Amino acid sequence: MIKTQGLTHIHLAVRDIQRSLAFYSEVFGMEVRFWDGPSMVFLGTPGAQDTFTLRQADAGEPVGPGGGFGHFGFRLQQKEGLDAAVEDVLGAGGLLIKRGEHQPGLPYAYVSDPDGYVIEL
Fold it and tell me: Would the pTM of this model clear 0.85, i.e. be above it?
């Protein structure tokens, strides 16, 4: 068994890097850690050690769901904030896919970013 410190990063190919940067900054408060040239930006959640990489997709390169990718999730600091979180997603150009409860008292929402990547809140 390989011992790790957990998940280090997610890397997404996106259609419009500036649009995706605005989405993840506005909705989740992610901040730019650094740019790697004009077509790749590394983001992070303030106060966390995560890394979220956005890369400008090449022409014709598929983006969004597919290729075995299911979804990724963000744990809200307060589950009571789910309604407001969904509104933030919608206001930033994302979509609501589905809402429900995994079990009583554990609500969730599946939303998508502008490229169709599915995010669980």
Answer: no
